[in-house]
Amino acid sequence: MEEIAEERSYSRLEWFFYIIFIPLLFTLVLSAIIAQMFGYNVVGILAKELNKVPVIEKLIPDAAVERSPSEKEETKTDKKDAKVTDLETRLAVKEREVNELKKKAERENQLQQQTQSQQVATKATQEQIDIEKQKQIKNLAKVYTSMSAGKAAPIMEKMSPEEAGQLLLVMKPEERSAIMAKMDPKTAADLTLLLKETSLTDSNDPGALQQRLLDLKYNASIRELAASISSMQPTNAANLIEKLFASDERKAVLVLLQMEAGQRGQILSELAKDKNRATLAAKISQKLLTN
């Protein structure tokens, strides 16, 4: 028995679903896949758009919203540009620092050169002054050598030892001897010692003569002080040596060295009698042994 199949009719909804929606959905999905394959971030765009929907945004995490390759590339470029800008800024800062250091070094170099130039100029000026002074001394010495020794000696005796010594130094030995022979013996002796010691250093250096004169004056004061203390009673002499040692140890020791051994022993014995000054006596004795 032949059965006749009746065609089933579709409703409008079914017709829309099967005829329009499914083919359209298939086409969209296929197009999205093809676009994704060609580098378009279709999934990211779709997730971004769906993330804006109030209810669906809770179902799609923010991590799923990816940027497109072009956006990623732009971000990388921006980062590189920012890094390059930062490096350029740092380089500019370093260049400024280097330039400042160069300028500072140049200023210091200029200052050093100026200082050296001033020192050279000062030295040259001082040398010229010394030369002129030596010329004046020689010219003045010629004036006294042109006189008789008997007239020149009294005049030079009234000069300071430094001035007289400078004049005698530039004279010839026979002229110097003739004038000093007419001088007071003590003055002549002091000048002889002064000239002897100075000639061993530099006869053209007035400073050497002046320093030697100061040494002679110091030694003369030592001898005079030693002679004065030697004439005192041991008790008074010990008191004076104690005070002198407290103010100038070197001078006190030199004074004691100028005395005779017996006088020196009496002063030290006087100091040692007092327990409070026994240590001082021992200290002075030790220094006397080392001089």
TrEMBL record:
Transmembrane segment boundaries: 15-38
Highest taxon in the source lineage: Bacteria
Keywords, alphabetical: Membrane, Transmembrane, Transmembrane helix
Compositional bias annotation for Basic and acidic residues: 98-109
Region of interest (Disordered), ranges: 98-118
Magnesium transporter MgtE intracellular domain boundaries: 125-196
Protein name per the record: Magnesium transporter MgtE intracellular domain-containing protein
